[in-house]
Amino acid sequence: MNGVHDLGGKHGFGPVERETNEPYFHADWEKAVLVMNLVGMVKRIYNVDEFRHAIERMGQAEYLNTSYYEHWLASVSTLLVEKGVVSREELEGRTKELEQNPGAPLPDRKDPELLERMMRAVRKGMAEASEPNPAPRFKTGDTIVTRNWQPAGHTRLPGYARGHRGRIHAFHGVYILPDAHAHGRGRCPEPLYSVAFESGELWGDTAEPRERVHIDLWESYLKPVEG
Amino acid sequence: MGSHHSEPEPWVVHRVRALESLLIEKGLLSTEVVDKVVQTYEKDVGPMNGAKVVARAWVDAAYRQRLLADGTAAIAELGIGGRGGGDKMVVVENTPSVHNMVVCTLCSCYPWPVLGLPPVWYKSPAYRSRAVLEPRKVLAEFGVTLPDDTEIRIWDSSAEIRYMVLPRRPEGSEHLSEPELATLVTRDAMIGVAQVQAPVATR
C-alpha cells in the first residue's frame, strides 16, 4: 500500500526529537493497549501482518497526527470488530457508559494460562520459525533488481527500494509472506534475503558517501539480473 | 494521569477501558495480565539484556564469533530470547571502518527481547524517513560524527528479523570486569546512534 507509513526517504519531518529520561509509558492507557495487542496475537485472533496493515488502513492524515499507541489502538479495535470478537455497537456503547461513569471498576478475572503464554511471548518474541521449503532461488552475491511493485494491499517492499538494483547479502530462511498473510490468503512461505543497496542506487546524486542500506526482502519481490 | 484537578479525561482513556472491560468479560484478558506484562517490560526486559550480550562479546572472543554467526543462539546462551518460536536475531558489529545503524521505515520493528520497548524517537517519522536517506546527518544530531571513509550500514527491519548493533569497546575500559562493562553500554549504542563512552574516571 502506497501509504504515508512508508516513510523511508521522505522529506520534511524535521530533526529527530528526543526526550531526556523518557518514561516507558506516557499514560496508563498505553499500557493496556500494548498488552491487548499482544493478547490479540498470542491468542491468534489476528496475525502481525494483519495488525500492521490495519494501522496502514487507519487514514493517512490521522496516521501522521496520532501517536504510536494510538496507531495500535486503531488497529486493535478495527481487528477485534472485523474478527467478530466485539461488535461496533458494544464498543461504542461501553465507551459512552464509561464516559458518563469514569470510576466504574474493571471486572475481576484470573487467567494463569494466558499469563504464562504472555510471559513467554514477552521474553522470546513472537515471530514464527523458518520453514524448510521452498529452496532459495538466489545465492549470496547475486545481483537482483526489485520489482516495481505497487500493491493496494500490504507489502514489505518499501517504496524507496522499488525498481532498484541490489545484491544478495544473506539468505535468512523461509518465512511467511506478509503480502498474503495480511489478507487471509494463507502463509505462502518464501525465501527471505537480506539485500544490500548502495546509497547512490537509491538516492542518486543526493546520496551520502559510503552508505549501504540492507533491507529484508521476500523472493517474489526480486528479479534476477543477467551478467 | 493521577492529577488532582478535575479536567475531563480524553476520549482515548474511555475507549481503551471499554475494550479492556469487554475483553475481560469475554474471557480474553485479565487485569493481572496487563500489570505483569507491563511490570516485566519496566523491570526485566530492557536494554540491560542487550548490554549483557555486548559485555560478554567484548571479553570473550569465542562468544563474539558465535554471536556474529548466529545471534539468536548466542543470545539464548545468556538466557535471553530463545529458539523455537521467537524472534530471529542478527547482531552486526561496529569496527574502526564500519558503523551500523538500525531502523524500521515501514513501522517500528525493534529487538524487544534484548532492548525492551522502543523509545518514541525510534518510532517517529523523522527518524524513520531520514535514517536511510541521510544517516550521517541523523548521527550528527545524536552527537556522533564519523570520518568520511567510515562505511555506514543501515539495517531496515522490513521482516521478522531483528537487528542489534555490537558497539566498539571504548578505549580505557581494559581494566573493567564484564558486569562493569555492561553498565557502560547504552540502548542508543545498540541501535547504532551512539558510541559507548569510556568510563568517566579514565576519560
Description:
The complex is a heterodimer of chains A (227) and B (203). Chain A is an alpha+beta fold. Chain A has two domains: 28-124, Cyclin A, domain 1, CATH 1.10.472.20; 143-224, Roll (SH3 type barrels). Chain A has eight helices and five strands. Chain A has a five-stranded antiparallel β-sheet with strand order 4-3-2-1-5. In chain A, helix 1 (28-42) crosses helix 4 and helix 2 (48-56) packs across helix 4. With 203 residues, chain B is of the alpha/beta class. Chain B folds into two domains: 11-43, no CATH class; 47-202, Nitrile hydratase alpha /Thiocyanate hydrolase gamma (Nitrile Hydratase, Chain A), CATH 3.90.330.10. Chain B contains ten helices and four strands. Chain B has helices at residues 11-25, 31-43, 47-59, 61-69, 71-77, 112-115, 125-130, 135-141, 178-184, 187-191, and strands spanning 88-93, 98-103, 151-156, 161-166. At the A-B interface, helix 1, helix 2, helix 4, helix 5 and helix 6 of A face helix 1, helix 2, helix 7, helix 8 and strand 3 of B.
Q: Which structural class best describes the helix and strand composition of chain A?
A: alpha+beta
Number of strands of chain A: 5
SS field, number of helical segments of chain A: 8
Number of helices of chain B: 10
Q: Which chains make the largest contact?
A: A-B, 94 and 86 residues
CATH fold descriptor of the largest domain in chain A: Cyclin A, domain 1
